[in-house]
Design a protein that fits this description.
By secondary structure, this protein is of the alpha/beta class. It has a single domain (9-155), classed as Rossmann fold (3-Layer(aba) Sandwich). Helices cover 32% and strands 27% of the residues. The chain is built from 6 helices and 8 strands; from the N terminus they run βαβαβαβαβββαβα. Strand 2 (33-38), helix 2 and strand 3 (63-66) form a beta-alpha-beta unit. Helix 1 (9-27) packs across helix 2 (42-57).
Amino acid sequence: MTARQIMTTDDLRRAVVRISHEIVEKHGGTDRLAIVGIQRRGVPLAHRIADAIGQHEGVRPPVGALDITFYRDDLSMVAHQPIVKGTDLPFDVNVLTIVIVDDVLYTGRTARAAMDALMDFGRPSAIRLAVLVDRGHRELPIRADHVGKNVPTSRDEIVRVHVVEFDGVDEVLLDRLPTTEAKA
């Protein structure tokens, strides 16, 4: 199977705009709101969401980046020398509503790690989760508050999110894992 495009550039843009409206509606405005992207592709998505909020609300919420590398429960299985991308939270997380942004929600383990990492910086008044794609197969009781697209998948499929900032194009692809990865 070759990769199948499930979101185009326009689909991705529309999803970001829709999520930005949902965030403002659920929060009741932009006061005491911050957007935090999970390294790597969650960060540019977080900036896009904040930009969209700024365009339709006139106030752009602050944006941060969260590196969850050392909070992963599978760190020993991922790499002997993990690549640390850095956390940048240019605001006090206390008493803010923090919207964590990631590209794909799968098992829920990344979102859990992000919450653990965020709590080391303080106690937000609320934490919400926004994802571009929810593919199902949760292993932890975590759900996204804001979803760009729900994509039913099998465990031998992979969702690949491409963003201009890293990949030169905005799109989401659905592909099959190579047979050696699918059996692992």
